[in-house]
Amino acid sequence: MRILQRLGIIPYLLLGIGLFIIGFMALEYVVNNFWPIDINRLDLVRATALDRVDAPTLLEAANNELIFAFLATIMVMVTGLTLPFAYFLNKRFGQYADQRFGASTTAPFLVVLRQSMGLGVWAAFCVWLQMNRAFGIAAALLVAGVLILFELLLQIRTRAAAVGSP
C-alpha cells in the first residue's frame, strides 16, 4: 500500500486511461455492430421516422441485454474518466487516519474507485433517463444528492470505525 502512495497519480491515471479506452472501444462495438430493436418490430423504425411512436414503445421493443451493455460501457467510460479527478479531490480535501503508520494519508484506492464508480452509475442513470425521454435537471440532481449522501454516510462510518478501534 505504501508503494501505491509513493507512485502518486500514476496508477490512477493509467487505470483511468485503460478503463476509458476499454469503455470507449466496447461502446463503439455495441453501437456499430448490434441492432437495438427486435427485428420483428421493424414497423417501429418507420413510425419513429414519421414521429408516430413514443419512447416507451421503442424501449419495450428494444433488446434489454443490449441496452444493459450500452449503459455498462457508459459507466466504465465515465469511471475511467473521473478516476484521476477523484484521486486529486481526495488528495486535496480528504484525510484518512492510518492506524499502522500513525499519520493521516490520502484515501485508499478502493475508496477513490468507489467514488468514481458512483459518478459512472450516475451518468449511466442519466443516459437511461434520456433514453426514456424522462431526463430532467431535478431528477439528475435528486439522484446525485442521494449518491452523495450515501458516500457521506460511508465516509462517516469509516471514520467512526477508525476512531473506535484500538
Q: Can you tell me the number of structural domains?
A: 1
Note the gap between the termini: 21 Å
Structural class: mainly alpha
Number of helices: 7
Q: Stretches where pLDDT falls below 50 for ≥5 residues?
A: none
Q: What percentage of the residues does DSSP assign to strands (E)?
A: under 5%
Looking at the structure, what is the overall shape?
A: elongated
SSE arrangement, N to C: HHHHHEEHH
Oligomer: single chain
Task: Write down the overall mean pLDDT.
Answer: 85
Rg, Cα atoms, Å: 21 Å
Biggest β-sheet, characterized?
Answer: 2 strands, antiparallel
Number of strands: 2
Helix content: over 70%
Q: What order do the strands of the largest sheet run in, or round the barrel if closed?
A: 1-2
Model description:
The protein contains seven helices and two strands. It has 166 residues and is mainly alpha-helical. It has one domain (2-164). A two-stranded antiparallel ribbon has the order 1-2. Strand 1 and strand 2 form a beta hairpin. Helix 6 packs antiparallel against helix 7 (137-164). The longest helix has 30 residues, at 64-93. It is elongated, with a radius of gyration of 21 Å. It starts with a helix and ends with a helix. The model has no long low-confidence stretch (mean pLDDT 85).
Short overview:
The protein has 166 residues and is mainly α. The protein contains seven helices and two strands, in the order αααααββαα.
